[in-house]
Amino acid sequence: MIGGMGPSLPELTGPSPVGSTSVHLTDTSRPDPWAAGVNARELMVSLWYPAVPSDGPRARYMTPAESELQLTSRGITGVPPDALSTVRTNAAADAGPTGSARGLPLVVLSPGFTNPRGTLTGLAEDLASHGYVVAAIDHTYESFGTAFPDGRVTTCRAREGPRGRGFWEKVVAGRAADVGFVLDELTGAHPAWPGAGLIDPSRTAMAGHSAGGAAAIAAMLADSRIRAGIDMDGATAAPIPDHGLSRPFLFLGKRSNYTPGGDGAVTTWERDWRLLTGWKRWLLVAGTPQALLDQPSPRYPEVTFCSPRG
Fold first, then answer.
1. Contact at 8 Å (CB) between 16 and 122?
2. Model pTM?
3. 241 in a domain, yes or no?
C-alpha cells in the first residue's frame, strides 16, 4: 500500500488501536549457537498489543542499518538503502497497553531465515488490533541485520558455514530454545515487559514463516506451553515422535509448493500430517509469491482446503 508519505502497511482490520515496543533480552543459560566464544544468547523482540489511543509517533518498521543490510545482502540496489526504514506502520511507539489482567492471548512469531522480525509486522499489528499480544523474535545471526540498542548490528553468521546434514535441525532447535526463553521472560515471575500482566499464559500460540514456520513444530515439541501452531510455507525439520502431536496445528502454504502429492518441501508436510493427531488444517493459497507477507493483494486470494490422507 502506498500512501502520500511513502510505503505503508495495510490498515488494521480489528477495533483496537495498537501499540508497539521492543525489548532486548539476554539468556545467560546457554551459549550463542552461531557465535563461537559468546556464552550468552542475546535477542531483540518486538511486541504489539491493544493500546490506549495515542497521537505519538508510529513504531519503526526497521532501522536504516537493518534496511541497508536486508537490501544489499539480497542484491537489491534500485532503491535507497534506507527504504525499508521509511515504511509506515499502524502501531504507536510505546503506547500504553490496555486490557484486563491475564486477559489477552499471546502469539509468538518467528520470521524466515535471513529475514528480520519486521517482515511480520503487518500480521502482528492486525492480530493485536483483534486483542492479541504478539511477540516477534529476531533470531540473532540468522537475519541479514539485527540492530541492538547499544548501536551494534549483527549480521547473518549462520550463512557463513556449510549447510550440511543437520543444518536445518540446528536452526529449528535454536529457535525453539529462543521461543522458550521469550515465554519465560514474558510470563515468568519477573517479566521483561511492564504490560506482561495482560497476557494469559494458558492461551499461547506460535506462528512462523518458512524456517520460522518449521520451528513452530520444534517449539511445540519442546514446550507444552505452546497450545497451537501455524507453519506458513516452511518445510519442516524436527521429527514428530511416533505417538504424535495432539495440539492444534495449521499448515498454510503456496499452492505451487505445497499441494499434496508434489515433490520437495511438501513431502515433509505429508510426513508430519499423519502424526498430527489433534485439530489440523492444510490450506493452500493461490497467487502468493514468497516473502510478500506484508504486501496487500488487490483482491482476496483464492484459498483451498486440503484433506490429505492419513
1. no
2. 0.92
3. no
